[in-house]
Amino acid sequence: MTDRRVRNPHISRIFTSCHLHISTTFYFTPPSQRTVEIWEFIKTLFNPESIINYGGLTLLLIVLFLENGAFFGFFLPGDSLMFTAGLLTATGVLDHSVTTVVVSMFAAGMGGYQFGWWTGRRTGKAMMNKPDTFWFRKKHMLLADNYYKKYGGKTLIIGRFVPIVRTFAPIVAGIIHMPLGRFTLYNFIGMVLWVGTIFTAGYYLGQAFPGILDYLGWIVVSMIIFATLPVVLQLRSQRKERQAAEGKQP
Q: What share of the chain is helix, strand, coil (3-state, %, to 5)?
């Protein structure tokens, strides 16, 4: 059987030689090949298993932090990455103790939300005046804002399980100047529930059915579809409401 565990020396080699690798790649690699390498790395960020196999726990935590509060991290995997981390921890592919993985992910997720709140507090209003780009679209902010109108502060808990909302909910909380103490409480509760359900499900499935690793790709795709569907429906509803409002204008 192939040993699929992620080992620390490999992770260390990747990150300690990062500067040398980038410098060498930039100066001595043809532009076309550099483009291919960059694109291959970007594709890695869309695949939860590739994230962990490529960068181990370190890259997992970086992605988790960005997806939970950096406005440009909305496209990164969240639920599927959390589930995959549980599954790979149980099967020994991610070669760290359960406690280390859980505590680290908890800190990264909470830290991402706190960063999102700070970003919204400092620059949120200016962001709303920016033109749309691939990295930032106002409709994503409005999606999170609609959740606040419906659920109030509980959005920070519910939004943990909804892609895009998970990224922009803390930013909107900062824009509306939600008190930091109240925000941190919601952040803590949401993170407990998120890790406690998604990671735990992956971990215990991995323990009970080690062979499930062979079907991980299908599981991840199913999770992405299931998690994204409510977002797609909500965005469609927003578009219809906007079109109806524009049609009523004289």
A: 80, 0, 20
CA 167/CA 116 separation, integer angstroms: 8
Amino acid at 72: F
* 8 Å CB contact between 58 and 172: no
What residue has token string 């991290």?
73
Which residue is it, tokens 């925000």?
Answer: 183
Q: 159 pLDDT exceeds 70?
A: yes
Q: Which residue has the tokens 């997720």?
A: 109
Query: CA 241 to CA 54: how far, in whole Å?
Result: 43
Whole-angstrom distance, CA of residue 178 vs CA of residue 172 = 9
Its pTM stands at: 0.72
What angle, 0 to 180 degrees and rounded to 10, lies between the N-to-C axes of helices 165-175 and 138-151?
A: 80
Average pLDDT over residues 16-31: 41
| Per-residue model confidence as pLDDT tens digits over 76-89 | 888 889 999 999 99
Cα–Cα distances (Å) from 137 to 3, 117, 233, in that order, read 42, 18, 17
Exposed, middle or buried: residue 152 (CB in 10 Å: 0-12, 13-18, 19+)? exposed
